[in-house]
Amino acid sequence: MTDGELVRRARAGDRSALADLAHRWAGRVVARCHAAVRRADVADDCAQETLLRGLRGLQSLTEPDKFGPWLCGIAQRVCQDWLRSRARAAVPFSVLTDGPPDGVLGRTEESPAEAAEEQDRLWAAIAALPDDCRESLLLYYYQDVTYQDLAAQLHVSAATVNARLTKARSLLRAKLADVPG
Question: Is 178 helix (H, G, I), strand (E, B) or coil?
Answer without folding.
Answer: coil
